[in-house]
UniProtKB/TrEMBL annotation:
It catalyses: chloride(in) = chloride(out). Residues 1-81 are annotated as: Disordered. Residues 23-32 have a biased composition (Basic and acidic residues). Keywords: Cell membrane, Chloride, Chloride channel, Ion channel, Ion transport, Membrane, Transmembrane, Transmembrane helix, Transport. InterPro entries: ABC1_TM_sf, TMEM206. It is found in: Cell membrane. Belongs to the proton-activated chloride channel family. This is Proton-activated chloride channel. It comes from the Eukaryota.
Amino acid sequence: MNNFNDDDDDEGNKQSTGFFDDAIERLDREETNDSEEEEEEEEEEEEEEEEEEEEEEEEEEEEEEEEEEEEEEVRESSPPMRFSKSCLKNLFMVVLIFIYLLLTGVAFFLAYQTISDFLEKLNHPVMSVTYKEVDSFSPPGIALYPGRAELLSCRHHFHDYIPQESCVVVRGPSDVRNKELIFMQFSLNETEEDFSAINYMLFSKFSDLTER
């Protein structure tokens, strides 16, 4: 009986070890299958990622090509705009240069005019004249050279040389308040020709002539 039981135990142990071995093999197979499936899934994911990357690269290339085409179209359509802008810039620069030259010329002209006026004033200084109202003053002297002419008009002029001729010396007016005037009358000349002007000289003081 004991031997039979021992045999049964041995057979049971063999069966149990075989069962465990089968289970371990199954687990190993399942693990290998799982690992293979995982590797396949990873490979598939990598392939999908690569495909997505390729698609993205293709899309980017297409977008770049589209952008290049748009840029080319813009370049083809923009030359007249650029030409017009350059023309406007050049015209604007020409106008600015013309205005600058005009203002420079006006400034030079004004400077020249100012300097010339200043030099003229230096060469011909203006003397201020002061006067005082008086009741009377010393009478001036008036020398007339009628000759044989009749006095019809009188004019003032400057003369550097006075020839020696007979003259009439008249005492000038001196009373300011009564508005003293001098009235002179001449007869016809011997030739009976009209005379339109008469020479004269003015002296500051009539007494200077009488003292001589």
